């Protein structure tokens, strides 16, 4: 299960969006992940930014660092609401975050 470590839930276009992503895995064996990535989508699920994490072998336990999500918010239309989607193998998790302000 991916976990995005957001420092805040509301951002404006002047903020840095740098989010470490960790994984918790409690299966019977280590999880080999060949596909892992992220995307920021708008309300219509249009991809506004995306990236990939390196393929990895995820051990059993929690707190395994998968990588970082970095997005230049000044390049996204504002004000708007976006969703961060993290994909790890077949698992897809998302978290909505609203944009505040007019883009200052």
Please tell me what the overall shape is. Answer: elongated
CATH arch. level architecture:
Sandwich
Total helices: the number is 0
* SSE string, helices as H and strands as E: EEEEEEEEE
Low-confidence stretches: 99-104
Helical residues, percent = under 10%
Strand order of the largest sheet: 5-4-8-9
* Separation of the first and last Cα atoms: 35 Å
CATH-assigned fold name? Immunoglobulin-like
Please state the average pLDDT score.
87
Main sheet characteristics: 4 strands, antiparallel
Strand content is over 45%
Count of domain modules = 1
DSSP E strands, number:
9
Q: Output the radius of gyration.
A: 14 Å
Quick recap of the structure?
The protein is mainly beta and 104 residues long.
Characterize the structure shown.
With 104 residues, the chain is mostly beta strands. The chain has a single domain, classed as Sandwich (Immunoglobulin-like). β8 and β9 form a beta hairpin. 18% of the residues are buried. The C terminus is likely disordered.
Key features?
four-stranded antiparallel β-sheet; mainly beta; 104 residues; 0% helix; Immunoglobulin-like; three-stranded antiparallel β-sheet
Give the SSE layout.
Elements: E1 2-4, E2 17-25, E3 31-33, E4 36-41, E5 47-52, E6 56-58, E7 61-71, E8 81-88, E9 91-98
Antiparallel strand pairs: 1-2, 2-7, 3-6, 4-5, 4-8, 8-9
